[in-house]
Design a protein that fits this description.
Blueprint lengths: L1 H15 L3 H16 L3 H14 L5 H12 L3 H14 L4 H13 L3 H14 L4 H13 L3 H14 L4 H14 L2 H14 L4 H13 L3 H14 L4 H13 L3 H14 L4 H13 L3 H14 L4 H13 L3 H14 L4 H13 L3 H25 L8 E3 L11 E3 L2 H13 L17 E3 L15 H8 L8 E3 L7 H20 L4 H13 L3 H14 L4 H31 L25 H17 L4 H13 L3 H14 L4 H13 L3 H13 L4 H9 L2
Parallel strand pairs: 1-2
Antiparallel strand pairs: 3-4
Helix pairs in contact: 1-3, 1-24, 2-3, 2-4, 3-4, 4-5, 5-6, 6-7, 7-8, 8-9, 8-10, 8-22, 9-10, 10-11, 10-22, 11-12, 12-13, 13-14, 14-15, 15-16, 16-17, 17-18, 18-19, 19-20, 20-21, 24-25, 25-26, 26-27, 27-28, 28-29, 29-30, 30-31, 31-32, 32-33
């Protein structure tokens, strides 16, 4: 491993050694990786830039962004500090450091940094809302209200501002004003599921279960993949004695996330209540697997094992519980019963007497303290009170609070509004991000033929779910680039070697080198269909970068701040040191030309029609896009993403009925986002 790391370092050092432009290029490639969420790879590029020129603030800042999206908040804070040491006027670094401090519950430190941003730019929307949120988390509601009132005075249509202020009033206990703010948020944007989720939970706490369920129903229709809404609706249904409905919601959560501990625990309790003991035990097995110190799960499993006659297993679980909770009298009563069934009468009597004495003692303590038992139906995840063993689990209020504010502090604000976005383009790659919900199998005879020739180091696949590289894969591909470079020197006429190296360059986000090698492969083999296809994809990736950056670059020139909308909205990508295509008709024509060549060489390669349609959609040529989706669907009637994208295209040309038909078809085939679009478009 040390040799591999040294080898990679030597490659980078060679790249960096000669001139300033090489350092700029390494930073640029790192930023490509940031844009496409390949954070581990991005960090490696920025490490090399820092090693070459440690006095530059930018590589520290960009590395901080990568660490932030890997949830390394301490690393983010440290890198922002290093950037600010080199440039104390980099206000975007103050804001990112504030965000990372907020994530670490260092609220005073976060407020200090947001204060710097607001001194420079008093109208900064994100600094204002986050300052309000930090004060809510500090329980300083008066100060929070000042920030949020200022925010909404400047931005009266800012939905997130009303949600945050509503949450603040809810925390204060002013439910009337909380409802007013949630209602206003829904009035401004009735397609934001978070608004219904938050209002639905407030209705739940007010025990208005009918309204709570209505809001959660709406949130689920708008965001069918958010498991938290199903868990909360399950609680609402349980509170209305709708056990079947609650069970159905927990089933849905577990379908989406088989390892969801809250859903497993709650379903286990419900199954035990209806006598489905064996399957209840299976749910508690999963809970204990992921939370081996969950003694409440052990206790419930012990009770169920006792019911089915597994006395040995029940006794083992109960012993585990009582070793941790020696004053839990109900556990001793239960163990007394288990021992009695095992004919251990002395042990049973001993446990029974101990339990009776503990119960009496505890009752006297509660009576003296004036405490009465409450009729509770739920407990928070962090509540380890063993006496609440039979209560359903809800997320902690602290965790719920975190979720309320997460979208503001984690910088995904622009993406919260429901967008009519196309399903992703396809690419020929070695890797694919796993998708448990949609298990489509994509096949291409072209890919299969190339794989059978064993000309490449790994098996190719066609996918529209690209995966970021892990550290080992990064090392493998840099080594592969070097090995292939040597092979090309020995066999310069091999198109497949250039294609293989282009694949490596594409995966490490070095698009300029990838384009050069794909073009060389095509020059050597003008019928190399997959080279044309991936060449078009890489050109599109470059164009995406170029088109998405200028808006934020102009914003940065105006106020030198980061709006923390994720690396896909990088505010500082300089065009002066890039080789990116300028957005315009010529670049689109170049991409279309390559897809045209793919279709000319292989008219049955449906992914070329699909990708070409997306380019035409982006050019607002929706009718041409529809024609391409028609061709893809005609060749593969089960092409779910093509139905979805054709539906969006038909909406654009006001062909609503056929668009809805496409969405229904896409939804049936597993594109669950289609259902929220149907809901939106039928109102």
């Amino acid at each position: 491993m040390k040799k591999i790391i040294l080898f990679i370092a030597l490659i980078f050092n060679a790249l960096l050694a000669t001139a300033q432009i090489n350092t700029d290029r390494v930073i640029l490639i790192g930023r490509n990786a940031l844009y496409y969420e390949d954070y581990v790879l991005a960090i490696q590029y920025f490490n090399q830039a820092i090693k070459a020129k440690p006095y530059l603030p930018e590589p520290y800042f960009y590395r901080a962004i990568a660490k932030y999206f890997l949830d390394d908040f301490k690393g983010t804070e440290d890198d922002c500090s290093l950037a600010l040491e080199r440039n104390p006027f980099m206000s975007k670094a103050y804001q990112l450091r504030a965000d990372s401090r907020q994530a670490q519950s260092n609220y005073d430190g976060a407020l200090e940094d947001y204060k710097v941003t607001l001194e420079m730019y008093p109208n900064d929307k994100f600094a204002l809302i986050n300052s309000g949120i930090v004060n809510i988390q500090k329980k300083d509601y008066e100060e929070a209200e000042k920030y949020l009132n200022s925010l909404l005075a400047m931005y009266p249509n800012y939905t997130q501002g009303f949600l945050s202020r509503g949450a603040m009033y809810q925390e204060k206990g002013d439910t009337v004003k909380a409802f007013e703010n949630y209602n206003k948020a829904i009035e401004l944007d009735k397609y934001l599921p978070q608004s219904y989720s938050m209002r639905g939970l407030l209705h739940y706490y007010k025990k208005d279960y009918e309204k709570s369920q209505a809001d959660l129903d709406e949130a689920i229709r708008l965001a069918p993949l958010q498991t938290g809404n199903y868990i909360n609706r399950g609680l609402v249904r349980y509170s209305q004695n709708d056990l079947r409905g609650a069970m159905g919601d927990y089933d849905k959560v577990i379908d989406l996330d088989p390892n969801n501990v809250i859903a497993r625990f709650n379903r286990g309790l419900l199954r035990s209540q209806v006598g489905d003991d064996n399957r209840a035990i299976a749910d508690f097995d999963v809970v204990i697997k992921f939370e081996p110190n969950n003694y409440i799960a052990y206790y419930n499993r012990a009770l169920i094992k006792n019911n089915i006659g597994d006395y040995r297993g029940a006794l083992e679980d109960m012993n585990t519980v009582l070793a941790q909770y020696p004053e839990f009298y109900q556990g001793f009563y239960a163990r007394s019963e288990i021992k009695r069934r095992q004919n251990d009468l002395k042990g049973a009597e001993r446990d029974y007497n101990y339990a009776r004495n503990e119960e009496s003692r505890k009752y006297k303590e509660l009576l003296a303290a004036g405490v009465t038992e409450e009729d509770e139906k739920t407990r928070e995840t962090s509540d380890k009170d063993i006496d609440k063993f039979d209560l359903l689990v809800v997320a902690d209020k602290s965790e719920e609070e975190k979720n309320k504010y997460n979208s503001n502090t984690r910088g995904r604000i622009q993406n919260q509004q429901i967008k009519l976005e196309l399903e992703p383009r396809f690419v020929v790659s070695y890797y694919e991000k796993p998708n448990d919900l949609r298990r489509f199998v994509y096949y291409s005879q072209l890919v299969d033929v190339l794989n059978k020739r064993s000309a490449l180091p790994k098996k190719l696949r066609i996918t529209n779910s690209e995966a970021a590289l892990n550290e080992l894969q990064i090392q493998e591909h840099f080594k592969s680039i070097d090995d292939l470079s040597k092979s090309i020197m020995n066999a310069p006429e091999s198109a497949e070697l250039y294609f293989a190296r282009a694949m490596d360059y594409m995966l490490v986000q070095d698009f300029s080198s990838a384009i050069e090698d794909f073009n060389k492969a095509i020059a050597l083999d003008p019928k190399f269909t997959l080279a044309y296809f991936n060449l078009a994809v890489v050109y599109t990736k470059q164009l995406d970068l170029k088109e998405n950056v200028p808006e934020y670059e102009r914003k940065n020139e105006q106020n030198d701040k980061l709006s923390l909308s994720g690396p896909k909205k990088d505010p500082n990508l300089s065009s002066s040191t890039t080789t990116l295509l300028d957005p315009g008709k010529m670049e689109y024509d170049q991409i279309i030309k390559n897809y045209n060549k793919v279709i000319e060489l292989n008219p049955e390669f449906i992914y070329a029609y699909y990708n070409r349609a997306a380019v035409r959609y982006k050019q607002n040529d929706f009718r041409a896009a529809i024609l391409d989706y028609n061709e893809a669907i005609r060749r593969d009637p089960e092409f779910a993403e093509a139905y979805y994208n054709r539906g969006l295209s038909r909406f654009q040309v006001k062909d609503k009925n056929r668009a809805l038909d496409d969405m229904r078809k896409a939804g049936e085939m597993g594109v669950v986002e289609a259902y929220s679009i149907i809901k939106r478009m039928t109102e």
